[in-house]
Write a sequence for this structure.
């Protein structure tokens, strides 16, 4: 006769996660959220530089206000994304709040340091710094964001249209400044 109780019965459901795989997943999310945090912090700092350079340069006109509006509009979704990544990465609410404050302070820090470095300088230096910081944004968009969006099957056409529309708007608004 077969004794059904002489060995362990372990039932695993699809949503069961072993502690080892859970630790590995949390570690991956922790590392991913750190990388995203660093990238967004740098991005926010560069935003401060670009914004300051635009407003210091009298040639930019309307474009300065468009860039300011774009920066304001994307702060909330960007902050929400980082908050979600940090939460999934196992960070405490206190650490997440501190991180978000740091991220939000990076743009004003970029503005302040740029003002200290460039106010009173000849316009040629402002133009060079504006070209450099704009080049960084274009590099990120062209070499990182566009190839990443091309990997997606859904929404690829919309990503291309949005990218081209953005350049079209900049070109169009250049006539008004």
């Amino acid at each position: 006769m077969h004794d059904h109780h002489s060995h362990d019965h372990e039932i695993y459901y699809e949503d069961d996660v072993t502690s080892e795989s859970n630790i590995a997943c949390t570690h991956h999310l922790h590392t991913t959220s750190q990388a995203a945090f660093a990238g967004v912090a740098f991005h926010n700092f560069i935003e401060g530089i670009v914004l300051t350079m635009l407003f210091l340069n009298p040639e930019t006109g309307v474009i300065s206000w468009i860039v300011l509006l774009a920066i304001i509009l994307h702060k909330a979704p960007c902050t929400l994304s980082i908050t979600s990544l940090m939460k999934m990465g196992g960070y405490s609410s206190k650490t997440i709040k501190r991180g978000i404050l740091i991220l939000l302070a990076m743009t004003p820090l970029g503005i302040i340091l740029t003002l200290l470095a460039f106010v009173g300088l000849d316009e040629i230096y402002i133009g060079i710094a504006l070209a450099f910081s704009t080049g960084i944004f274009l590099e990120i968009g062209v070499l990182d964001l566009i190839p990443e969006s091309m990997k997606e099957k859904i929404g690829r056409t919309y990503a291309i249209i949005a990218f081209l529309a953005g350049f079209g708007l900049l070109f169009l608004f250049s006539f008004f400044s």
